[in-house]
Specification:
Chain B: InterPro entries: NrdD. The structure holds 2 protein chains of 2 kinds. Chain A is of the alpha/beta class. Chain A is built from 25 helices and 18 strands. In chain A, helix 8 runs parallel beside helix 12. The longest helix of chain A is centred in the middle third of the chain and has 36 residues.
């Protein structure tokens, strides 16, 4: 007589025959059965069988379930047995998932980030804070849920096995990746972020503040980066308005002081309004629109014309200086804000990027100059700002050659980048970017996301081949090294397997799109509700967003081309021309498949050189377990990023650029090339610039120069520090005396005129340009 | 009237303070390698420098 049963966790609980009857009945019902009596009868038979098998020993849950299956089959209920078995397998999966998830939660809770790789999956989040950990709880739970219940088992399996990687699975059911936010359009007429209306800004400081708000608000609706493609053009309007205001103020003061004008402010204001109404003119930096002459006429009626001219000159000069100062402060505040407001899921700052460099108006130039100078100055203690990612758009005819209108800003960009690692450089002359370019139309200038994502062509609507208001919808990466390992040097087989993998990825991208498409405008209060996404302003709150989402890209990515080539041929593409040829064939083929699918379906399929942070280790970990250690392939803890030459391979900067450039043309969904420079490029700007120019000439689309940037928080020195700080002489962890700091002029005096290094007046004098 | 002078030669600042090492990871900057995941740490260790002298200049 069975009285007790042993549960999986070892507890014994009273045995209940009714539970068996219920389970059998449930399984039978799936097939249309409804005979509970038969279920009871079978349950009784199960009990008899158990007593026969185990006598007085208490059976385990597993043993009971085995007995049920046995009994059902013995009695000719094989289909019911099958249903029961499936149900049991499902329960097992759920249980294992709970266990795995709970283990992850346990580690998140009790381990420091130092010991927990999962907590450090994203370097931008402090995994040790409450919000950082909460974000991880949510993220891991969502991923598991998606793997278990949302994904088609084929995709789920491919992802778990490591054939593909579905990025941002935690947000699978929720949203899309990223967007380029057109701030000219957004600010015009003002906008709302949920509560309360933000009027169109009237001052450069407000423009900058609203820029941050726009990025933060949009970041709440998407999981990926937020970028402004027209930063200079957009902010320039703020400069125009600020200049106007400051001109008016200064003119009024001058007139009052020099000419004794009564009620100067009112009078001048009235005059300026009248001029605007009658002629449409107002004061601008360039001072070449006829305003000054018109104003001179009217002022001349109120005072001595010579004095009037004097006042005008004073007003213009003062306003220009003050506007410049105000713009600098606005840019400084923007940089500070984007580095300190943890407004992405409460745990990190938004992934923000800004594109600029091509606005040649005086106002646009003032914006560019000041955002660069603010970046150069750094944060409160002169620290290097981490966000936003700056992308300087290089364009021949605008800023690339001496004599071109913004060439000085290109030089400044190089100087700042050599110190602060930003800006990165995008190249509008790369043939694949140039084809869209129309001078004077910022919307035809390709803008990148800081991470490298690029959206320009538009198969869904060829009349809207633009950057503004578009972005990536989702991306999934292919494990190239694994395919190569499996192909075992057979290149034809490799391509065959790659082809199948691409089929899978295409289907999975579309399946994810279907989920994203069924969302409504009100699921994206800012991105869609405020019309940031292209054409979303044509929708109402309860409309589905699928149609307008088609402007976005469905993107396939890849990792480890170098290791893939090594596995196939014995050499990566840095060391062999043959491998380089094969590499281009492989990536070319992937691109071809994306283009074909786009043509076939009208969707924007594209190919990206995957950024890969968490992914860099994931695939190789699985492959190492599966295939063992293969030299040059799985013998490191990471796979080389996308099409890059391996970081450990000794190669000249210019050769690296030339080898990687052709892949930029193939990866229309996004790409980047890095160069690692030795030493402090601030002391060798010519070499730095040579690298950037090589990128431009080689046809690179987006490039970045890396060099070590170290900083001693005590004396503020920023540059290269090996073991000893070059400024104050201390070693890591050592103290240095206040007297010594004072002697070298590095003791905290926060002198506003010497921003950056606790007021070190000697720093500038140290800079010596080196010859290449 | 003697004011007590702090001996500024003896007051030390910065004990226990390390250097900040800003590095780029997957395109964005991080102020400390502590936050890198294991794979990216390994990659950062492997990174070599790319020389900017072109071969022709070596005489």
């Amino acid at each position: 007589m069975i009285r007790q049963i042993v549960k999986r966790d070892g507890r014994t609980v009273p045995f209940d025959e009714k539970k068996i009857a219920d389970a059998i009945f449930k399984a039978a019902k799936v097939l249309g059965g409804d005979n509970y009596e038969m279920a009871q009868d079978l349950a009784h038979q199960v009990v008899l069988y158990l007593e026969q098998q185990y006598g007085e020993v208490e059976p385990t849950v597993e043993q009971v379930q085995d007995a049920v299956e046995h009994t059902l089959i013995e009695n000719g209920h094989s289909r019911t047995a099958k249903e029961y078995i499936l149900y049991r397998a499902q329960r097992t999966r759920v249980r294992e998932m709970n266990t795995k998830l709970m283990k992850i939660y346990e580690d998140l809770t009790f381990q420091d980030a130092e010991d927990n790789d999962v907590k450090r999956e994203n370097a931008n989040i402090d995994g040790d804070t409450p919000m950082g950990t909460m974000l991880k709880y949510g993220s891991e739970g969502a991923k598991q849920f998606c793997e278990m219940y949302i994904l088609d088992p084929a995709y789920s399996k491919a992802h778990i096995d490591g054939d593909i990687h579905i990025h941002d699975m935690d947000f699978y059911t929720l949203t899309t990746t990223c967007c380029q936010i057109d701030i000219e359009k957004l600010f015009r007429g003002g906008f709302s972020t949920g509560h309360g209306f933000l009027r169109e800004p009237n001052d450069i400081q407000s423009y900058a503040a609203l820029g941050c708000i726009a990025i933060q608000s949009n970041q709440n609706d998407q999981h990926g980066g937020q970028s402004i493609p027209n930063f200079d053009y957009g902010m320039a309007h703020g400069v125009v308005k600020t200049f106007r205001k400051l001109y008016r103020k200064n003119l009024a003061k001058a007139c009052e002081l020099l000419c004794g004008m009564e009620n100067a402010e009112e009078t001048i204001k009235g005059m300026m309004n009248a001029i605007q109404e009658e002629t449409g003119l107002y004061p601008i930096l360039a001072d070449d629109n006829g305003y000054r002459e018109e104003e001179a006429k009217r002022l001349g009626e109120m005072m001595d014309p010579a004095l009037a001219e004097h006042c005008q000159q004073f007003a213009h000069k003062s306003a220009a200086q003050e506007t410049d100062r105000s713009t600098f402060q606005a840019m400084e505040a923007l940089v500070h804000n984007l580095n300190t407001m943890h407004s992405r899921a409460g745990a990190q700052v938004p992934f923000s990027s800004i594109n600029y460099g091509t606005d040649t108006s005086p106002e646009g130039r003032m914006v560019i100059k000041n955002i660069l100078l603010a970046t150069e100055a750094g944060l409160g203690n002169g620290e290097t700002a981490i966000f936003p990612i700056h992308i300087f758009k290089v364009k021949e005819g605008i800023n690339y050659n001496e004599g071109e209108p913004n060439y000085d800003l290109f030089k400044l960009a190089c100087r700042v980048s050599a110190k602060r690692l930003f800006p990165n450089f995008s190249f509008l002359d790369a043939p694949f970017n140039l084809q869209y370019y129309k001078p004077g139309d910022p919307n035809t200038e390709v803008a990148y996301m800081g991470c490298r994502t690029r959206v320009m062509a538009n198969v869904h609507d060829p009349s809207r081949e633009t950057t503004f208001g578009r972005g990536n919808l989702s991306f999934t990466s292919v494990n190239l090294p694994r395919l190569a390992i499996k192909a075992n040097h057979d290149v034809d087989l490799f391509f065959e397997m790659l082809d199948h993998e691409i089929d899978l990825v295409i289907d999975q991208l579309m399946a994810r799109f279907r989920l994203q498409a069924s969302k409504k405008v009100r699921n994206y209060p800012f991105l869609m509700g405020q019309g940031v996404w292209l054409d979303s302003d044509k929708l109402s709150p309860d409309d589905e967003v699928g149609e307008v989402l088609k402007h976005g890209t469905l993107t396939m990515g890849f990792i480890g081309l170098a290791e893939c080539l090594k596995a196939l041929t014995g050499y990566h593409h840095g060391e062999s021309a043959e491998s380089q040829k094969l590499g281009l064939e492989i990536i070319g083929y992937m691109r071809k498949r994306m283009d074909e699918e786009s043509q076939k379906t009208g969707f924007n399929y594209s190919l990206i050189a995957t950024p890969a942070e968490g992914l860099s280790g994931r695939f190789v970990r699985i492959d190492k377990k599966r295939y063992g250690i293969i030299p040059g392939v799985t013998d490191r803890e990471y796979y080389t990023n996308s099409f890059h030459i391996p970081v450990y391979y000794e190669i000249n900067a210019f050769d690296k650029i030339r080898l990687e450039a052709p892949y930029h043309a193939l990866t229309n969904g996004g790409h980047i090339t890095y160069v690692e420079l030795d030493g402090d490029p601030s002391k060798n700007l010519e070499a730095f610039e040579a690298v950037v120019r090589c990128m431009k000439e080689a046809g690179v689309g987006y490039g970045s120069v890396n060099h070590p940037v170290d900083r001693d928080p005590v004396c503020g020195y920023t540059g290269i520090i090996d073991d000893v700080c070059p400024r104050c002489g201390r070693r890591e962890g050592e103290g240095v005396s206040v007297a010594h700091l004072k002697r070298i002029g590095a003791y905290k005096n926060y002198n506003a005129d010497t921003i950056g290094y606790h007021g070190d007046p000697h720093e500038e004098a140290d800079r010596i340009p080196n010859k290449v | 009237m003697q004011t007590t002078q702090y001996n500024e030669e003896e007051i030390m600042i910065g004990e226990g303070v390390g250097f900040e090492r800003i590095r780029r990871i997957t395109g964005y900057l991080v102020g400390t390698l502590d936050r890198f995941n294991n794979a990216k740490r390994a990659e950062e260790r492997d990174r070599v420098k790319h020389s900017v002298t072109s071969p022709m200049e070596r005489i």
